[in-house]
Amino acid sequence: MIRKSWGERTFEAGNMLLLALLSLVTLYPLWHEISISLSSAAGAMRGGLFLFPRGFTLDAYKSVLSSSFIWLAYRNSIFVAVVGTVLHVLFTATTAYALNKRGLPGVKAMTLLLIFTMVFSGGMIPTYLLVKSLGLTNTLWALIFPGMISAFNVIVMQSFMRTIPEEVEESAMMDGANPLRIFFTIIMPLCKPVIATIALWECVGLWNNFMQALIYLNDKKLFTLPLLLKEIIAGQQLATDSGQFTTFAAESAIAATVIVSIVPILAVYPFLQKYFMKGTMLGSVKS
Amino acid sequence: MSHQVKVPHGALMNTGSKSRSSAFMKSFHKHKYYYVLLLPGIIYFILFKYIPMGGIAIAFQDFRIAGNVFDSPWAGLKWFNILFESPDFWTALRNTVIISFYKLLFNFPAPIILALLLNELINGAFKRIVQTIIYFPHFVSWVVLGSILFSVFSVDTGVTKWLGLSTSPIMNPELFRGFLVGSEMWKEVGWGTVIYLAAIAGVNQELYEAAKIDGANRFKLVLHVTLPSIASTIVVLLILRTGQILNVGFDQIFILYNPLVYNVADVLDTYVYRVGLTMGRFSLATAAGLFQAVVGLCLLVFTNWLVKRMGERGLW
Amino acid sequence: MKKLTKMVSVVCMTCLLGTLAAGCSSSENGNTSSSANPAAKPVTYTMFFNYGIPEFPDNGGEAKAKIIAQMEKAGVQGVDYKISMISGDEYKTKLNLLISSGEIPDYFNVDSTQLAMYVDQGLLRPLDDLLAKAPNLMKFIPKERFEGVTFDGKIYAIPQGVRTESFNSPNTAGLLVRQDWLDNLGLKQPTTLDELHTVLKGFTHDDPDKNGQDDTYGLGGNKATVFNTVFGAYGIGLMSGSIFWTEKEGKIVKSFVTPEAKQALAVLQQWYKEGLIDPEFPVMEPKQGDARIINSKVGVFEGDAFGVNAIGGGYYTSLLKVLPTAKITMINRITGPDGKKGWPEVNPYSGGALRAISVDAKDPERLIQMLDWSVSDDANGGVNLLTYGEENVDYTFDETKNLITQKTSYSDLYAKGFSNPVRFVQVTDRRWTDNTVRAALEIASSEIVKNEWWKTVPAELDYPDLEKKLWTEYFVKIVTGVWPVDRFDEFVQNYYQQGGQKIEQQANEEWQKSKN
């Protein structure tokens, strides 16, 4: 181990201090929500900044979690997030990989048409009519198929794939592997960091998808978490507005729903995190 | 592509086209696996993106909510004229461009710098904790963040006094745009690092080893190894970002703006929301959206051209 | 094929539900309904309302059988209902999508913008002939409310009704004061603008909460506050939902261009400059404004008569938790220098109160029968059952005091399938209020300034930013002293130039017509 210079040590200490400060600042919103979610009605309605819950109560959580549909909503959301993410990553990757082949006839036109869809869209009503004519309304697939590939992610993935040395692929070609095989056994494993990124983006997007759930789902048994939580909040607000006595404020209900929906994502994150660490590529290239 | 396969058979077909078509078949055969990989993408984009694009016609119609999109009477450029003749539209456009430019200038590089700083952390546990915490604000909606920001910068708390201000920056037209930029950075900078961390993770470690042998210090490693290695990701994201130049984030501005800062904060999205959507004028909103898209596409094409001239690989 | 199977299943379901309902009623009601009225084939009405009530069961809950049974006793046969709900702006989005894909519900909420749009596109059924057969609706819905939902001489929506007791007036807003602060400073309830000024000064500078700190403001507010008290003291109703039309020399003008508005702005600016108004009011959400009340930061504020209800769960309840000695009361309207006073009337046909029938609704006569029954006070009428549940199980009714006491909580009522979702026509009913609230309601319904013209004229749709942006900007900037009061004249000029001229002309034409 080489001894670190004085400058290097100062940098490291400064960097740690800076990032610790940033963490504190970005931690506050969550801390605020946790505190409000555990506060009594009067405590939450006093507003301002929260360092601790005021008038500790678990009533907001009790109310949110007592909805007979909550566990069903969790199940629906997990289904949409898992299936949706898998399909999204798979088809984004196949599209990106094929579009990266410069010699492929039609590839440039297709790239342009792909980029076009990032800027122009038909809007909500025509998309709704399409999904309805496909018979997908009031099914969870309506939350998965319309967003199954995104042009943005295709391009991000393409740019990552370009950093893979061409020799890797060429040597596999020499060995007689066809592109499908190369894609699944060599390219996909090498793309782990970017797959982890897109999976995280997509998973979070699907998990929080409120608008599509709202417009496509009618049956309460199919409600996903954001849609159900929104209804619970609205119910709490109606109760407050119509002057009914409640032991917790609408703000607490909102905060509790934020926490309730954030926890599963936090649980997923550590599994993906290792792909963002230095050195994953190296190992896989060598093997 | 499929339409090229359907070369008409019959008398007109000469030997030249035959050889062309067989050459094509050969090329198709050679690449068939790639087309297999492309097939789901092609179906998806035609079905879910290009078919609904017929809805753009709404911008040229007096849109009626009931019935087929094409049953509505045509209105020509009526909605565009209404937009372009309104002075408020031009104010909103100006504000949009200014705010968007500030955000591009400050909030685009911020996650790159943060990712590089994170990458320099030695202590793995600390790094993981920081990485997780800085994502939090991304998961909290602007409604909630708006009320937190209001509380933090209220005259009551003393933060404003400490900053040397007499009123909340939310009420101050001179500070409001800076406030938008800063608060967006606070919410999204951590989340924005995800892609750069992934790109950094993909950098070939041998490059570092080689540079270390050449005696490069940490700063030089970042400058000469890390940055060039993730440059293509940065460039791609930058080009894509310019395509969204007129979409400046409705929620944030809608939550934070108020009559005192209308003249600096009213942007296209908020303007369209007030005069289009809340009035049930879908055609006006669609026309404005189309305008944003066309401008975005032009800028995207321009940036891509610029990038290619500078010797980087563009999107196409 | 798929459509066909779907249709068949829908028809089957409808039949099944119909027979079930008929079966129920026949067992209770010796005289079977189906044989008595064979023509009445059961109809299920789909309804879509703007509510967030997650407790309400998809199938209507245990209440449905009771409701249908009582309906049949009253002679409304073979009716069933299926209610879905979404709250807020999302309601509009979803309704538009349902309409655009041809799944329009039979009966649904509209707001006034949607109403005009849907009428224009021929989506709604004219109701005149139906309402002629609905005596109870006609009894409870004030006549003038139909004006706002009439297009080309035909009625297209059912406005909210009002029960006959005086405490049911839709006007519930007024000025609320911290009585304990008045007592601390030895001040009387203010009655004039000058006295109010004195009170505000006392509340701001004289430490009304006796905590030894200069941390209070006289007048509170939030983003939505328009300081109606001050405008009322100069004789104009500024706005409630939209800016009011006021009569001037034989024609109507928007009240925000009148000289009285300028005088009111001058007063407000003076107060703001003196530090009497909470300086952050223009950026506060209503709940942040409420937080100021709960934290005893402000002593006078605009509010609702229900705000004096100590156990209502609103800010008063929370304030009492923080400070048990606090007391909020509603004070009488404040008189201006010329003896004027008042408060703008509530838009009688705003928000969730309007409901319309689809032009495609099956058998609309029967639907209107059901709606009429739902507000009826008769022995088998629906109003108490739908609103409060079953008597002596869910509520008790004290006839002498005309007081309803709810025994079942709202969320349990919803879970059973009663209350707001099944109040098919909303009729304001405050028989549950106690005397304190009724006294405040008495004040809130007094000295009401009328809006001379409620309907939206076409030009207003073309220039929507005049009220939403132009006025709010001048209003806030003048009140907060960023701009001098004289820039009000510039506002008037801008208003007329940017479309106000046309709006005023159109409104006057229609107003004159309506007077003849």
Automatic annotation (TrEMBL), chain A:
<dbReference type="GO" id="GO:0005886">
    <property type="term" value="C:plasma membrane"/>
</dbReference>
<keyword id="KW-1003">Cell membrane</keyword>
<feature type="domain" description="ABC transmembrane type-1">
    <location>
        <begin position="74"/>
        <end position="267"/>
    </location>
</feature>
<feature type="transmembrane region" description="Helical">
    <location>
        <begin position="78"/>
        <end position="99"/>
    </location>
</feature>
<keyword id="KW-1133">Transmembrane helix</keyword>
<dbReference type="Pfam" id="PF00528">
    <property type="entry name" value="BPD_transp_1"/>
</dbReference>
<dbReference type="InterPro" id="IPR035906">
    <property type="entry name" value="MetI-like_sf"/>
</dbReference>
<feature type="transmembrane region" description="Helical">
    <location>
        <begin position="182"/>
        <end position="201"/>
    </location>
</feature>
<keyword id="KW-0812">Transmembrane</keyword>
<feature type="transmembrane region" description="Helical">
    <location>
        <begin position="253"/>
        <end position="272"/>
    </location>
</feature>
<dbReference type="InterPro" id="IPR000515">
    <property type="entry name" value="MetI-like"/>
</dbReference>
<keyword id="KW-0472">Membrane</keyword>
<feature type="transmembrane region" description="Helical">
    <location>
        <begin position="111"/>
        <end position="131"/>
    </location>
</feature>
<dbReference type="GO" id="GO:0055085">
    <property type="term" value="P:transmembrane transport"/>
</dbReference>
<keyword id="KW-0813">Transport</keyword>
<protein>
    <submittedName>
        <fullName>ABC transporter permease</fullName>
    </submittedName>
</protein>
<comment type="similarity">
    <text>Belongs to the binding-protein-dependent transport system permease family.</text>
</comment>
<feature type="transmembrane region" description="Helical">
    <location>
        <begin position="143"/>
        <end position="161"/>
    </location>
</feature>
Automatic annotation (TrEMBL), chain C:
<dbReference type="InterPro" id="IPR006059">
    <property type="entry name" value="SBP"/>
</dbReference>
<dbReference type="InterPro" id="IPR050490">
    <property type="entry name" value="Bact_solute-bd_prot1"/>
</dbReference>
<keyword id="KW-1003">Cell membrane</keyword>
<feature type="signal peptide">
    <location>
        <begin position="1"/>
        <end position="21"/>
    </location>
</feature>
<keyword id="KW-0449">Lipoprotein</keyword>
<keyword id="KW-0732">Signal</keyword>
<keyword id="KW-0564">Palmitate</keyword>
<protein>
    <recommendedName>
        <fullName>ABC transporter substrate-binding protein</fullName>
    </recommendedName>
</protein>
<keyword id="KW-0472">Membrane</keyword>
<dbReference type="Pfam" id="PF01547">
    <property type="entry name" value="SBP_bac_1"/>
</dbReference>
